Amino acid sequence: MKYSTSPTPSRTNSSLLGMSSRTTSPLPPPANYQNDCMSATNKSYKYLRRFVKFDQMDFEFALWQMLYLFIAPKKVYRNVNYRKQTKSQFARDDPAFLVLLVGCLCVTSFGFAWVLSLGIGQSILFLLYVVFVDCILCGMVVATLLWFVTNRYLRDRASDIDVEWGYAFDVHLNAFFPPLILLHFIQLFFYHPLISQDWFISTFIGNTMWLAALSYYIYITFLGYNVVPNLKNTRIILVTLPLLFLFYVITLIIRWNLSTSLMYFYHYRVL
Q1: pTM for the whole thing?
Q2: Residue closest to 230 by CA, chosen among 168, 161, 169
């Protein structure tokens, strides 16, 4: 079969994985279920190998995830513990979401290039910056930081299951998508006629879009770590929301248009 439809493991096998009782099932484990986890190298190899096998990617499910990251992000994480029980890992083993995300970055980047009046060479350079620096490199830094913090300070010491780096990167990709659409797509339609103007309403609308985008990122990041059973005190991630709102108010008071600053940064980075 193209996709796995195996049932969830039994309570006995779930307890061996250190999972809580709320994620267990009375059904027997799948025939190919293994109690031991693959190494990080094997997981990475399996993930990268599927990049060239488009027929094995579940793009329909990836599109469903992208939609629900906007309207009901909690639903995206409902199958995380099931994946851990059936595939011995929290992280995705299907790169379809990343492929679609890169596709979205390509479309929105050329939209940005059109708004910034960039040439062909500058547009390609801008695309490379957005994909490999803004999304992947910065995402790897953020994922590594949160991976270290959650395993070092938030993990239940009674459990021998830790947060995988691949899952931390998955959480970043999930959290990155709504800001991408808000700031790299929707904002483009309002930039020249409204947001770029020297009016207070321009600063208000542009900065409010930034507030919404970063709030999405923080909240989805919180959801990603909150569903991991052996993590505690994950609500500390939400502490950054009041700080973000305070920063938002300050930018309005001093009339700092964040969207205009972003455009200047993007424009001069590729000159």
Answers
A1: 0.81
A2: 161
